[in-house]
Structures are given as C-alpha cells and as structure tokens.
Specification:
- With 365 residues, this protein is an alpha+beta fold.
- It has 2 domains: 156 residues, no CATH class; 134 residues, no CATH class.
- Helices cover 27% and strands 31% of the residues.
- The strands form 4 sheets. Strands 1, 6, 7, 8 and 9 form a 5-stranded antiparallel beta sheet that branches. It has a 4-stranded antiparallel beta sheet with strand order 2-3-4-5.
- It is globular, with a radius of gyration of 22 Å.
- Bound molecules: calcium ion (3 copies).
- One calcium ion (CA) binds next to loops.
Length: 365
C-alpha cells in the first residue's frame, strides 16, 4: 500500500498536459486510476454519512442555526405545496409577482419571498448553483450567494416571516439528505433528517465583496475564485464580466475541440447572465483555455483541491471527458460528452485545420 501511495505521489507530481488531457493506455496509469476511483467511492460513502451532528460541525462560520418550536415541516412545505393544483396557481401568480426580478435578473433565478425595505427590494433566489439573496436597489440588481449546500439544507418555499430582519437574512427550513435513485441520475430525491431550523446570516457577512468585483466573498470562496482580486486569472477582465474567470483563454487545436462540445444554448445571449454558470469538473489545460459564450467555472478532479462547497454539492450537470487517441491515425481522436441524462461518444478528426465530429454512440435515459 505504501509502495502504491509513493507511486501515486510521484505520478501526481509529474503530471503533464498529456496526462491531464489524454487517456493513457499505460497499464500503470490504469491501475492508479482504479485507485482514484476507490477514493471517489469512499467520498460518496462519506457524503451519505452526513447526519445532523456532522452538518452542524461542518457548517459555515457565518451561519447561525436556531431550533424552532413551531415550524413548517419539510414534508408540509415540499409535498403539499407541490400538488398539481397549487403548482398551477402558483405559476400563474409567479410571473406577475416577480416581474421586476425576472426583468432585472433575466430569469437567472427562481424567486420567492419578496420583501421591500425602504427603497430596497429583496427576494430569495435559487439556481443550479444553490441559494442566493437577490436585491434591487436604485434599479440595480445584485445577488449574494449563501454558500449553503442543497445537499444538506432545505429552505422552505413558504416563509411565514419576513426574510430580512434586523440586519439578518432569516430563513426557515430543514436539514435534509439526498436519496440517490440507482441507475437514474437526475432523479435524486430528498428526505428530511431534522425539521424546524432557522438559518440566520448577518447581511454584512453575506453582502461582503472584498474586491468589489460584483461577486460576494462567499460565492468566490465556494467555487475557488479569488475574493481578494477582481481579476482571478489575470487576463485583464474582471471576474464578474469574464466568461471564463478562472483560466486565461487560448486558441489552439484541442481547445477548439472542447469549445465545439460545450452545451449549446442557441442564439440566446447569456453573456450578461452573470449568475448563470456551467460548471465543469476537469483538470485538462486545453479545456480550461476555452473561450465560452456564457459563464463557466472549473472544479478540479482532485478532491483535495476542491473547495468545500463543490465537494458536497452536485453543481455540475454536464461534462466532457479526456481525449482518447487513435493508435493508428494521429489525426483521429475520441471524446465522450455527458449530460444529466445522456452520454454521447464522438470521434473527432482534425483535417485541413478543422475538426470533423461524428457521433459514435451513446444513450439517452
Ligand atoms: Ca468579489
Ligand atoms: Ca474576485
Ligand atoms: Ca479575468
């Protein structure tokens, strides 16, 4: 075991672009890859072991948790509310109730619990990354990431009290766990592990944006951006306006290949949707160097290098694997692309300075 561990260390230290971007047929690598899989398996097990004690022990410092005597249970909030009749009524009212938020934030969030204090409008926002406090002040929209993982925290849709109170964001909810449905990714279900919680975050802590780049410190820390530098990757564009804020974009052959395989949102202009992100788990330099049409973030494949939030929260719904070489033709490669319910195998041929992609196989659930 020690021998393997040493090998692993040596291997990790000497990783090159080749190792990070291309599948190796080398047997040693395969062996070590299995070892990595084992680590990931034990990580999954760790995720399942979260109980009330552990959630509290690992809660963010800025979060206060109060036990409530009277409360809306997870069951009441999540099940009753989602009956067809109520849902239909809710969606009818939703568009008019949150019109100003939808206009200002270009529908980047699902909103609830609007509140007006003096001239400031607040609403609770949810998107693929997690929970946000959305604010409109002097016509200007801003959103502040809560950093509370939806793997552990359920926030009630119906808040019986105002969410902003005495300089705090106060939201009621429960501790939950995710029940994975085997073989059906994307069909995760929740179950409550303890109801009746009031989650409190001081507004000053939530709104804190040390480098004034438009993303609060909690957001930058949650995803591995630099909260003390407006321009995390030093490419001259500040984090808020940089479509790829973590890495400098380059133009090269394999980067072009990754760009072709990015999820396509058609003609919709998502450039100004500063809170909409596609998150990719990859260590490949070529992938990191893409110039996307919407905001992207990257998470390391190495669990030890992942920020805490992404380690416990499944924020990546789309992926592109490493590149596989064709042993007899140096211009032909294979690459796999997956979404939450599909997987596609491509063969890619580089000919006359261009990529020709062909679908080789795949499945859709
Ligand atoms: Ca910031
Ligand atoms: Ca920053
Ligand atoms: Ca930048």
């Amino acid at each position: 075991m020690r021998y393997l561990f040493l090998l692993f260390l040596i291997f990790s230290c000497s990783k090159t672009v080749e190792d990070r971007c291309f599948e190796s047929s080398d047997s040693l690598t395969k062996h070590l890859k299995n070892d990595e899989d084992l680590i990931i398996d034990s990580h999954d097990m760790q995720m399942q072991e979260y109980d009330v004690k552990r959630i509290i022990a690992e809660k963010p410092d800025y979060l206060q948790i109060v036990n409530l005597r009277e409360f809306r249970s997870f069951k009441k909030d999540s099940i009753e509310l989602n009956s067809e009749e109520i849902m239909e009524k809710k969606w009818k009212e939703y568009d008019s109730e949150f019109k100003i938020f939808n206009d200002k934030f270009s529908k980047q969030f699902t909103f609830s619990n609007q509140q007006k204090i003096d001239n400031i409008l607040y609403a609770f926002g949810r998107n693929q990354l997690g929970f946000w406090l959305c604010k409109i002040e002097n016509e200007k929209p801003s959103a502040y990431f809560l950093g509370l993982s939806f793997s552990h925290y359920y926030i009630n849709e119906v808040q019986e009290k105002p969410i902003i109170n005495n300089g705090f964001l106060e939201i009621e909810g429960s501790f939950v766990k995710i029940i994975k449905v085997p073989g059906l990714p994307g069909y995760d279900d929740y179950s409550a592990i303890e109801d009746g919680k009031l989650f409190k975050i001081k507004l000053d802590d939530l709104i804190k944006d040390s480098d004034s780049d438009g993303y609060n410190d909690i957001f930058e820390n949650s995803f591995g951006l630099n909260p003390h530098n407006k321009d995390s990757d030093g490419d001259g564009t500040d984090d808020f306006n940089d479509l790829n804020p973590m890495f400098k974009s380059e133009n090269n052959k394999f980067t072009q290949l990754y760009e072709m395989l990015l999820p396509d949102y058609g003609t919709e202009n998502l450039r100004d949707n500063n809170y909409f992100f596609q998150v990719f788990i990859s260590d490949c330099d070529y992938f990191h160097q893409i110039k996307p049409k919407y905001h992207v973030l990257f998470v390391s494949e190495d669990l030890k290098l992942q920020p805490k939030y992404v380690k416990i929260t499944d924020v990546s719904s789309y992926g592109i694997d490493k590149i596989r070489r064709n042993k007899s033709n140096p211009n032909v490669f294979y690459i796999k692309q997956w979404g939450s319910s599909s997987m596609t195998d491509y063969s890619a041929e580089y000919k006359d300075g261009q990529w020709i992609l062909k679908i080789g196989g795949g499945y859709i659930i």
